[in-house]
Amino acid sequence: MKLRMLWLRLVPAYVNDAQRQATKDAGTISGLNVVRIINEPTAAAIAYGLDKKEGERNILVFDLGGGTFDVSLLTIDNGVFEVLATNGDTHLEGEDFDQRTMEYFIKLIKKKTGKDLRKDNRAVQKLRREVEKAKRAFSVQHQVKMEVESLIDGIDFSETLTRANVKN
């Protein structure tokens, strides 16, 4: 049995034709059989099975990624997708949420213990790992229990992070 490798590449909806072609060419140069270049919001809609429903409908797709926040309006008509409009903020990303959450906890820890985490790089990195885990957990939970053993000067840290904390 011969194994064929096919490459399906997702791109942001705002990518122009020249950028799409460059992406396709890069795959071909790399020896990949480029099957298709698909807009990320279209892929999200397919992942939710929206292509299987009959009739015409409009959907709004929000994409908060590691580097951008995009919103796309798509129309689907009997399995055929068309991106009607897209917009976004290339400066709002998941890392922005991480940073705000880090600041929240650094202030909270200073208030509770008198310790300034910013003076201990190891402690900052430990907290950052937990904040990133919490962010991922928020996709399925409304609150997350964060626990870090010996965060700073042998002090254990335990706190429940809620969506309300993050919003504020």
From TrEMBL:
Molecular-function annotations in GO: ATP binding; ATP-dependent protein folding chaperone
GO process terms (BP): response to stress
Signal sequence interval, chain numbering: none
Classification via Gene3D superfamilies: 3.30.420.40, Actin, Chain A, domain 4
Compartment list: Endoplasmic reticulum lumen
SUPFAM superfamilies from the UniProt entry: Actin-like ATPase domain
UniProt entry keywords in alphabetical sequence: ATP-binding, Endoplasmic reticulum, Nucleotide-binding, Signal
Domain of life per record: Eukaryota
InterPro entries membership: ATPase_NBD, Heat_shock_70_CS, Hsp_70_fam
Keyword Thylakoid carried by entry: no
UniProt GO cellular component terms: endoplasmic reticulum lumen
Family matches, as Pfam families: HSP70 (PF00012)
Family, as annotated: Belongs to the heat shock protein 70 family.
Protein's UniProt name: Uncharacterized protein
Lineage: Eukaryota, Metazoa, Ecdysozoa, Nematoda, Chromadorea
